[in-house]
Each structure stands twice: as structure tokens, then as C-alpha cells.
């Protein structure tokens, strides 16, 4: 018979378990740590660059405005004829370099010289007439004195006749003749006095040279002499000849353009900036310019001279009319004048109309005294020289007329 009591339970058998390494051990593997270091270095460097950029922007708030819509500009001097005439000589052609005062074109002087001779003769005749007026003044004064003597004599005779007539020595008819003689002498004296006053009115307060007729003749002579001077056309400024329209034998009128002179040593840049770019552009700020002819190998250094008074479209031949029809907003451009360094311009010559790229440093403060704009000869003495030559002709003619003996 089997014992129904259960035997004590045997202890559980020992089971060996294998412990796997912790999961975070893989997180610190050498490859993962190296990757983390690289990422940390990258983001740290990026953050440092951002911080440096922000600090630089705060400490040095500089800006650059650039445009490639820029062109070389300069003074284009039209040389026109000041008198009508026929072209006889052309001494300068396109691309020729000329100096200020150099002879360019000659017109036929025949007509001008004939007018000069006629005007000189008219002035000499006016001088003779003026001298005659002064001589008449003296003659009429002498005539007045003579008439005064005659009048005094006639008055004395009349007094004697009246005394004799009272005593009955002479007849009434003889007394009447004495009275008529006295009246005639008085009338002659009055007439002579009026002639003297008229002569004085024509010469009083003036000299021969200041006489109105002489002055009018002198002005005609000056105009004729100036016309002779203007038959020779000179260069008002130095530069390169362009757009020659004059031809030998061509009849030209007053004001007709003969050729053009462009002073290549006084060029500037007209940079057309968008209206949103010119907010910080001020006169005197520095600018760099590169011309397409030389590319980036040559950099010009200039200064902002100023901003034009209006956009390019405002001064167009047909300005836009935005008040009618459908309107589409278009960004406008405003010309900004950039003056170039003369030394750089001499080393690397440019031509009017060439394309350029311009950058303006708007971070610079505006100059208290903006650079002087390029201008050709604010004052030219060339035309004054022609006027002085004409004045010399007038003076010589006046001197010759005054030295003549009275007729």
C-alpha cells in the first residue's frame, strides 16, 4: 500500500541565467561619440558664425547698393556756326584730338569783309557829321554875337531918329525906316539864338565819340568786325571731334551745328538705381565702377556727386500718363551721378555711352562738401577774344576819324 503522504518537495534545480549588457552601453560606442562630436562642432561653429555676423552688423552697419544699369556720360559740346557762310576749309575730322582754341573750320570771308569796309566808311562819315555839329555850335554862337551887335546899332539909330523926329529935323518916313531896321535886327537875333540853341541841343553833354550817330555806326562796325572774326571757327574746349556735319562748299546758317567735341578727360557715370535703392545714397559717398570694356581687371574709384531731380521716365520726351487706363506699377530708376578719379581715367580711357557696373558704399556718411561736378570750362575766354579783336577795329577807326582835319 502506498503512503498517501506526500514526500517533502525537493529544492528547485539551479538554473544559470545569462545577463545581457545594458542597452545604454551601445549609446556610448566610439563611432557614435565621434559622430556626436562632429555634429556638436558643426552646430557650435554655425552658432558662432551667426553671433559674429550679428555683432558685426550691429557694430558696423555698412551697406552696398549695386546696379549694372549704368553708362559712361560726359559733356557733348556742339560747335555751331555763329554767322551764315560757305565752308571753305575743314581742319579737324572725327576721332581727332583737338586743343582749346585750335582752328577747326573756315568760312568764306568775302561777304563779311565787304560789310566790314562799308561799316568802317559809315563810322568815318558819322564822325565827320558829328564834328560838323560841334562846328555849327560855334558858328551859330558867333552869328548870335553878330546879330546882337547889329541889333544894338539899330536900337541906337532908332533912338537918334526918334529925337530928331520930335524936333522935326527928319521926316516920319525916315523914322519908320529906322523902326523897321530895328525890328529886323531883333528878328535876326532871335533866329540866330534859336539856331544856336538847336545846335547846342545836338551836342550838349556829349563828345564826338559819344554822339548817338557815331555810337550807332560804331556798333555796326563792331558787328561787322565780329562777323569777320567768326568766319574762323575755333574749338571752345579740348577733346575729341565727333559727329562732323560740315562739308567743304556747304552753305551753313546761323546756329547750324558743324561738329561736336567730347572732352574725354571729364567723364562721369550715370548709374540708374531703383527707387528702393537710393534711400541711403548721399553725395560724397565712395563708389566703385567697372566698365565692360576692361571688365573686373580695372576698378575705378569715384564719388557720388548727386541724385537727379527726377526719374528717367519723368524727363522722357513722352512722360508716362498713369492717371488714365489700366495702371501697372513699374519700378522706376533714378540716375545717380558718379564722378571718376581723373588719374584713373587718364590711365584707362573711356568713351561716352559705354556700359558699367556701379557699387555705392551707403554705409559712409554724406560728405559736408560734395565733389564738384565735372564741367567743361565753367568760363571760356575764347569768345571774349573775338569780341576784343572787334573792339580793337572800332578803336582804330575812331582814332583815324578823330585825327582827320575838319573839312
Overview of this protein structure:
The chain has 407 residues and is α+β, with helices and mostly antiparallel strands. The chain has a domain at 116-217. It has 6 helices and 14 strands. The protein has helices at 30-59, 110-167, 172-203, 212-229, 342-347, 382-403, and strands spanning 64-74, 77-80, 85-90, 97-98, 103-107, 232-234, 239-242, 251-252, 257-262, 267-274, 286-291, 300-307, 333-340, 355-361. The strands form 3 sheets. The chain has a 6-stranded antiparallel barrel. The protein has a 4-stranded antiparallel β-sheet with strand order 2-9-7-4, with no helix packed on it. Helix 4 (212-229) packs across helix 6. The longest helix is centred in the middle third of the chain and has 58 residues, at 110-167. It is elongated. The model is unreliable at 1-9 and 13-19 (pLDDT under 50).
In short:
The protein is α+β, with helices and mostly antiparallel strands.
Unreliable residue stretches: 1-9, 13-19
- Intertermini distance: 198 Å
- Helix count equals 6
**Largest beta-sheet characterization:** 6 strands, antiparallel, barrel
Quaternary state of this entry equals single chain
Q: What value does the Rg take, in angstroms?
A: 51 Å
Structural class: alpha+beta
Strand order of the largest sheet: 1-10-13-12-11-14
Percent range of helical residues: 40-55%
Percent of sequence in beta strands: 15-25%
Which key features would you list for this structure?
407 residues, alpha+beta, six-stranded antiparallel barrel, four-stranded antiparallel sheet, 6 helices, 14 strands, 20% strand, disordered N terminus
Amino acid at each position: 500500500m502506498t503512503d498517501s503522504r506526500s514526500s517533502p518537495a525537493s529544492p528547485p534545480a539551479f538554473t544559470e541565467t545569462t545577463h545581457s549588457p545594458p542597452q545604454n552601453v551601445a549609446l556610448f560606442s566610439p563611432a557614435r561619440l565621434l559622430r556626436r562630436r562632429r555634429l556638436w562642432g558643426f552646430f557650435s561653429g554655425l552658432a558662432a558664425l551667426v553671433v559674429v555676423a550679428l555683432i558685426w552688423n550691429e557694430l558696423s552697419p555698412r551697406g552696398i547698393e549695386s546696379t549694372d544699369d549704368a553708362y559712361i556720360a560726359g559733356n557733348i559740346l556742339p560747335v555751331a556756326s555763329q554767322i551764315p557762310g560757305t565752308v571753305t576749309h575743314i581742319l579737324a575730322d572725327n576721332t581727332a584730338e583737338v586743343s582749346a582754341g585750335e582752328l577747326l573750320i573756315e568760312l568764306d570771308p568775302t561777304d563779311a569783309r565787304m560789310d566790314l569796309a562799308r561799316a568802317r566808311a559809315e563810322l568815318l562819315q558819322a564822325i565827320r557829321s558829328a564834328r560838323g555839329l560841334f562846328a555849327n555850335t560855334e558858328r551859330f554862337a558867333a552869328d548870335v554875337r553878330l546879330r546882337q551887335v547889329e541889333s544894338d546899332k539899330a536900337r541906337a539909330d532908332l533912338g537918334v531918329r526918334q529925337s530928331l523926329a520930335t524936333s522935326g529935323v527928319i521926316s516920319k518916313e525916315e523914322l519908320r525906316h529906322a523902326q523897321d531896321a530895328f525890328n529886323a535886327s531883333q528878328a535876326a537875333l532871335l533866329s540866330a539864338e534859336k539856331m544856336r540853341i538847336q545846335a547846342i541841343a545836338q551836342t550838349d553833354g556829349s563828345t564826338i565819340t559819344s554822339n548817338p550817330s557815331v555810337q550807332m555806326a560804331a556798333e555796326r562796325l563792331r558787328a561787322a568786325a565780329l562777323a569777320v572774326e567768326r568766319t574762323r571757327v575755333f574749338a571752345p574746349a579740348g577733346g575729341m571731334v565727333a559727329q562732323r556735319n560740315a562739308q567743304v562748299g556747304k552753305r551753313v546758317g546761323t546756329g547750324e551745328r558743324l561738329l561736336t567735341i567730347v572732352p574725354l578727360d571729364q567723364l562721369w557715370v550715370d548709374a540708374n538705381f531703383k527707387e528702393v535703392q537710393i534711400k541711403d545714397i548721399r553725395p560724397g559717398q565712395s563708389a566703385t565702377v567697372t566698365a565692360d570694356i576692361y571688365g573686373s581687371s580695372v576698378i575705378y574709384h569715384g564719388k557720388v556727386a548727386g541724385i537727379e531731380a527726377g526719374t528717367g521716365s519723368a524727363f522722357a520726351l513722352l512722360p508716362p500718363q498713369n492717371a488714365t487706363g489700366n495702371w501697372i506699377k513699374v519700378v522706376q530708376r533714378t540716375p545717380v551721378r558718379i564722378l571718376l578719379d581723373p588719374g584713373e581715367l587718364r590711365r584707362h580711357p573711356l568713351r561716352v555711352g559705354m556700359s558699367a557696373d556701379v557699387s555705392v558704399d551707403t554705409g559712409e556718411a554724406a560728405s559736408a562738401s560734395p565733389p564738384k561736378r565735372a564741367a567743361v570750362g565753367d568760363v571760356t575766354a575764347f569768345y571774349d577774344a573775338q569780341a576784343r579783336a572787334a573792339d580793337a577795329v572800332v578803336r582804330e577807326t575812331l582814332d583815324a576819324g578823330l585825327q582827320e582835319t575838319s573839312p
